[in-house]
């Protein structure tokens, strides 16, 4: 799996911006991605050193459209902690 396939997009919320002050960055990642692949993708794309990776898997919510019922896709979130002194410039701007 290539680095751009592992990281889907950054997650920018009020909680994730508060975590950035501690050197933790949040990404939506592929469901099949492992912690090692996420670490390698972040290091390759942003040229930083990763200390740890925490992942969470979410089930898609049930949604109704009239009488029919559908489901949103399942997704996975990763919180990447960088080594002290490192930061990602994309988020700082």
Structural category is alpha+beta
Helicity level, as a percent range? 25-40%
Q: What best-fitting shape do the alpha-carbon axes yield?
A: elongated
Q: pLDDT below 50 for ≥5 consecutive residues: which ranges?
A: none
Radius of gyration from CA coordinates: 15 Å
Count all strands and give the number.
Answer: 6
For the report, how would you describe the main beta sheet? 4 strands, antiparallel
Q: Distance between the terminal alpha carbons, to the nearest Å? A: 29 Å
> What strand line-up does the widest sheet have?
1-2-6-3
What's the helix count? 4
Beta-strand content: 35-45%
* Mean of all residue-level pLDDT scores: 94
Helix-strand topology string: HEHEHEEEEH
Describe the structure.
There is one protein chain. With 93 residues, this protein is of the alpha+beta class. The protein is 29% helix and 38% strand. The protein has 4 helices and 6 strands. The protein has helices at residues 3-6, 14-20, 35-46, 89-92, and strands at 7-10, 24-29, 50-58, 62-65, 68-71, 75-82. The strands form 2 sheets. A 4-stranded antiparallel sheet has the order 1-2-6-3, sandwiched between helices. A hairpin with a 2-residue loop joins strand 4 and strand 5. It is elongated, with a radius of gyration of 15 Å. The relative contact order is 0.25.
């Amino acid at each position: 799996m290539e680095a751009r396939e592992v990281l889907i997009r950054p997650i920018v919320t009020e909680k994730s911006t508060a975590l950035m002050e501690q050197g933790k960055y949040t990404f939506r990642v592929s469901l099949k991605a492992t912690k090692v692949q996420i670490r390698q993708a972040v290091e390759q794309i942003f040229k930083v050193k990763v200390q740890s990776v925490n992942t969470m898997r979410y089930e898609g919510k049930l949604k109704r459209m009239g009488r029919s019922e559908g489901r949103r896709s399942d997704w996975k979130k990763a919180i990447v902690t960088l080594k002290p002194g490192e930061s990602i410039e994309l988020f700082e701007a």
